[in-house]
């Protein structure tokens, strides 16, 4: 599912205003939450690990945030309604995850800030922490890839409506 298209698994209650949501829909053609067993525990564990890596990725630019938070959302959606709600309603990154899943896009100012912070931290890392040429090249490649990804995310409709 590409950016720009809503996720039918979220249901109409997921277009959030405030911090309350409906639970993820279940039934025919929908994600079915695993209620018991080892599979549920593994999904919760994988979701928690992914969420942790995503949170660390917020401050460490080499570690990608978005894929880990989206993986955590997918794992929690299938295993724990409580953890899924926590993730998508989190005051720090909940709106980011919801907007990405629902295909709403990203405000231009957030794009600019994210790319600027990425290049600042990569540049500082290369200047003060990394001496090996191969690692510097890898850092530049990662920065170019992340910059391209962020640049290709469409601008949010909310921002376009204000202009």
Overall pLDDT metric: 78
Sketch the topology as an H/E string, one letter per element: HHHHHHH
What is the number of domains? Answer: 2
Ranges where pLDDT stays below 50 over 5 or more residues in a row are 1-29
Largest sheet: none
Shape: globular
How many angstroms does the end-to-end distance come to? 28 Å
Structural class: mainly alpha
Please report which band the strand proportion falls in: under 5%, 5-15%, 15-25%, 25-35%, 35-45% or over 45%. Answer: under 5%
Q: How many individual helices?
A: 7
Tell how many strands the DSSP assignment holds.
0
Helix content: 55-70%
Rg over C-alpha atoms, rounded to the nearest angstrom: 18 Å
Identify the quaternary structure here: single chain
Main attributes of the structure:
single chain, 163 residues, mainly alpha, 2 domains, 7 helices, globular
Question: Overview of this structure, please?
Answer:
There is one protein chain. This protein is mainly alpha-helical and about 160 residues long. The protein contains seven helices and no strands. The chain has helices at about 35-60, 65-80, 80-90, 95-100, 110-130, 135-150, 155-160. The protein has two domains: about 10-100, no CATH class; about 110-160, no CATH class. About 65% of the residues lie in helices and about 0% in strands.
